[in-house]
Amino acid sequence: MNRTWWKLLLSIISVGFFCTVGYESYAALTHKNAIIAAIIIPHHDIVAKQRKQFLNELGKKIQPKTIILISPNHYDVGKARIQTVDQDWNIAGGIIHSRSEVVQVLIKNGIGNEPASFPDEHGIHLVLGDIHQAFPSASLVPIIVKSSATQLDIDNLEQILEKTCTACLVVASVDFSHYQPALLGDVHDELTLRALQNLDDNALLHTAEVDSPGALLFVSKWARHANAEHFVTWMHTNSGELLQQPDIESTTHIFGYYESGLPAGLAGKKVVSQHSVTFLLGGDLMFGRMVAHTYLQRGMAHVFDMFGDRSFWGVDAGIANLEGPISKTPVPDDYNSKTLSFNFPPQTIDALKFLRINAASLANNHSANAGAQGVQDTRDLLKSANVQAIGGPGDQDIPHVGMFQGEKLRLIVIGVHALYGPPNISDLIKTYKADPNNRVMIFPHWGVEYAPVHNLYQAQLAHEWIDAGADIVIGSHPHVIQDAEVYKNKPIIYSLGNFVFDQNFSKETEEGLLVAGDFDDTGLSLFGLPIQIKNYQPIMMRGIQKKAILDTLYAPLTKFIQHTPLGDKLFFPL
Asked: Which of 92, 418, 435, 498 has the most other CB atoms within 10 Å of its CB?
């Protein structure tokens, strides 16, 4: 047989093989005329019992021939961003066989064949026994995804599997919010659940706080491929609540599946309101003087080594007050000068990117320290990092508001430099409040430095803004946490204090406050997260130290406190 005929024969065999691999009936995934195409389960073993129950209930409905199991690559091992392996799996309940022909097609199409990456991957191993018990006849296509995987990588993976494993069941083994107090983890999951319900690819890949954004993106694309776009939440749990320790570094878990045609079912409960927008607000960020001197050579992102990169990841609006301009060129190390004219090094942008904020207020008395050009350079640098610049040093900058779209609600943040005169923003507030789907937050720079209690001028402004329609006022500048009050059922927190600063001359200047919350159909939920600054690094407070600060802050607000299994929060009804 000559070479031409041999190549033709191989082509025919290949086409026939490809079609055989791709042909698999949706009947095995159909229950009451609805396809169940993809499942999300946690691998965190604190919910092993719930995971087993969930899968067994689904096993009574469907029995897939093949499961595509997609997991994080927790240890970032191996070369490829997406990896697989062709092997059978010996587990306590028996053997799970590889769907070898599908795995080989993946490998031939560039998915990394890296067996050494799989022995320690708990996103795979911790769930295999439960999967096998629920779906004993299913073969396996295992996939692990690095956090660096791009949308193009996931698109390519989905296109290959769409042709080779058409009616396979996808099981995503993922855990959600990590390391946060339980209340903040719950806020993060508001956005994630909304993104799952809406199949919002951009939010799933970039905004949802999860240990494998790529896996969630793949699940979303697979659901659309199967025309099974209805997400059913079976259970939503939080390790802080399960352990009755809401202040620990918690992990959250979402159990759910994508189906066509069925109403929300199994033991499902709806946990996301119809309208929602979430936020996390931090105080004064200063990246000059001793902060730059200490961390510039190591990398400015190391300022947040003790804080991490996940707190602002997972909210619609992640905002802090940037207490000075960012230079486009290197700046002198001025740590000995004790200067009050700030100019932050260009690497400040690296720290902000690491923190994952999506907006910074320039409405303060230091943002113009490098002049008008410095303000413009800062705006340009923030824009290049996809960080909104809110307000500025003068009244002419007030129209630079922050806009954050949630689920059918939009948060408008108005930054105001109010140290040198009362800005007139009542008409601006009324303009935005004319839209019933807008919520308005005022972020003023005001008050007396180091004063623990607000003054009459602050109260007059806050009341004026709330009279005009503002929903909440949260301030900065005094470099210490100030008190709070309620006016016309709207909260005012007068100062968040420092977030990153080198004012290590007092206990109070080395303490700060983050404020998180969400607006929904019924009102505003709100809670404080105190931080401590050590060696110019913020650290989330926990335990007695945290409680002492919140007890003081909440004292005038006791009427609005709600005691929940996730911790105490404030609720201000519409």
From this structure: 498
Q: Write out the H or E segment, with its range, that includes residue 10.
A: helix 3-22
Please give the Cα distance from 68 to 165 (Å, whole number): 9
Structural contact between residues 512 and 533, judged by C-beta atoms closer than 8 angstroms: yes
Question: Quick one: CA torsion of 70, 74, 80, 82, rounded to 10 degrees?
Answer: 10
> HSE-up of 360 (CA within 13 Å, CB side)?
30
| pLDDT tens digit sequence for 210-249 | 999 999 999 999 999 999 999 999 999 999 999 999 999 9
- Output the furthest CA–CA distance in the chain (Å, rounded): 96
User: Which residues have a Cβ under 8 Å from the Cβ of 562 and sit 6 or more positions away?
Assistant: 568, 569, 570, 571
Whole-model pTM above 0.85? yes
Write out pLDDT tens, residues 88-138: 999 998 999 999 999 999 999 999 999 999 999 999 999 999 999 999 999
Report d(CA 453, CA 556) in Å as an integer. Answer: 12
Cβ contact 443:321 at 8 Å = yes
Two tokens at 485? 């009050």
The chain-wide mean pLDDT, for the chain, equals: 93
Are 360 and 320 in contact by the 8 Å Cβ rule? The answer is yes
Please tell me the distance from the alpha carbon of residue 12 to that of residue 7, in angstroms, as a whole number: 9
Place of tokens 């086409």: 15
pLDDT over 50 at 6, yes or no: no
- Separation of alpha carbons 416 and 403, rounded Å: 15
**pLDDT digit string (tens) for 273-329?**
579 999 999 999 999 999 999 999 999 999 999 999 999 999 999 999 999 999 999
**C-alpha of 316 from chain center:** 8
Please report the DSSP string for 370-418 in residue order.
THHHHHHHHHHHHHHTT-EEE--SSGGGTT--EEEE-BB-EEEEEEEE-
Polymer length of the chain:
574
Q: Which residues contact 566 (CB under 8 A, 6 or more apart)?
A: 182, 183, 185, 186, 238, 240, 241, 246
Residues 129-142: b if buried by 16+ CB within 10 A, e if exposed: bbbbbbbeebbbbb
Q: Residue 306 is encoded by which pair of tokens?
A: 């003790």
Angle, CA 175 vertex, CA 210 and CA 545 arms, to 5°: 80
Average pLDDT for 247-254: 97
Tokens 């005691």, located at residue: 563
Q: Per the structure block, which two tokens stand in for 150?
A: 């791009």
